[in-house]
Amino acid sequence: MGSVPAWARVYVACVVLGALACVAPLPDLRVPWWAVALLAVLYAGCERITLPRGPRGVSAAGRDTPKSMGTFLPVLLAGAFLLPPPAAAFVVVPGALLARVEQRPRWLRRVWRAAQLAVAVWAASRVHWALDGRDAVVEADFPYALAPAGAAVLTFCLVLTVLDGGILALADRAPVRGAWRGLFARSLAPVAVHGLAGLMMAVLWRSPYGPVAALLVLLPMYVSCWAFAQYHRERAAHQATIRALVQAVDIKDGYTRGHSERVGQASMMIARELGMDDERVEVLRFAGILHDVGKLGVPTRLLRKDGPLTPEERRVIELHPEYGHEMVRGIGFLGEARSAILHHHERLDGSGYPYGLVGAQIPEFARVVAVADAFDAMTSTRSYRRARPVPAALEELERCAGVQFDPGMVQALVRALARHGWHPAVTADSAPLRGGVYPPAPAVSGRLEGQPTTTAGGRVP
Question: What ranges does the record give for the region Disordered, renumbered to this chain (predicted)?
Fold first, then answer.
């Protein structure tokens, strides 16, 4: 919402009107104002504690993780379980309007956040009261109290999903068909956990021990959120480091712009097909993305040379895995990815570089990245040749399996593509001619971009 389209502003205004309608009956209700004030202060305090935000930071629960503790929902859901719907909706407003916001327009983001959460809390409280959840909370009637609370949590998630999808479609111009995809599933589990904590708060609040006991529920949840925040700060720093390195490579070697991200994607597909755990899959994605980072140490004139490379120039370019390994040696979170960066041009028959490793001497991550690298190089259009179809590229990989590539990795890629397909972004530097026909590929140059070579040492056209 940096420059917010007019229709997005209209959408926000409509949600704000809906939120005002939710809290409008509040002056006519007999509610415990001290409880409303205490919950509002608690939520406002949580909102001032910063958590990491995703790239866009639009939604409060869904595709992007909010930066503040707006996702710290036990207080809001406890209000939905304890208070009438208008009062529960009002608890949101002070904290959301006082929240830390880094991106502009700040006032519009605060208003949007307050409105969407107020509507969602109002709907959740309405459902909870309609199912007699208040009586179950007062009487601590378990397990019956779980049913209305669960319905309230589902309602809360559903409302947020609908509102978030709308703002993504209008403000971020996301495709309408995909704007809501996955939002509900991603938000349900964390909101359910916070909903259970909110229910515990509400039950203790109504118990003889009173609000003080209820506040104790917040302590373990706060510690958990703090640890989660630390993890995401660290992860954000990792992503920023990798993004900066990849952008530097893309700027220097325009021929392969986007290549690194696609190799990371293909490496991740192979890793999942091999049954690697999520942590190793993530590190292998880093390996694929950074496999060519050593090109930063290669003279630009060689990377952009259109004609054949001389033997001396080829030897210089073949140093890029070692350059890359030196560059990332001190980045601890890369782990096994560093060996892949160093050895992704090794071949099973020992004719690769930089060390001529044979067979199982080549690290597993390097064997994965080698296949992903070659596959993307063959299926991407360059200024000097057109892309091969995916089936032709896979056929070439299978032909070279056992000599250049690990057969297990090749088959894993074949299975992954059969299941998921291959839909990379188009990054060709030369536009097609009219009618969508690419110009014929010129004679093969001496550039080194990861394409598989035949067993005779010749370059694949």
Answer: 429-461
- Phi, psi dihedrals of residue 449, rounded to the nearest 5°: -130, 20
pLDDT at 286 over 70: yes
Report the share of the chain in percent with pLDDT over 70.
Answer: 80
Closest CA to 295 of 335, 336, 263, 269: 263
Confidence band for 174, pLDDT divided at 50, 70 and 90: low
Euclidean distance between CA atoms 101 and 110, whole angstroms: 7
DSSP structural state of residue 276 = -
Which domains are seen in the chain, by residue range?
A: 6-216 (1.10.1760), 234-420 (1.10.3210.10)
Q: What is the C-alpha to C-alpha distance for residues 150 and 245, in angstroms, rounded to an integer?
A: 45
- The DSSP letter of residue 254 is G
439 pLDDT tier (thresholds 50, 70, 90): very low
What CA–CA distance (Å, rounded) separates 262 from 246? 12
Contact 240, 248 (CB under 8 A): no
Which residues have CB under 8 Å from 340's CB, separation 6+?
284, 287, 288, 291, 363, 365, 366, 368, 369
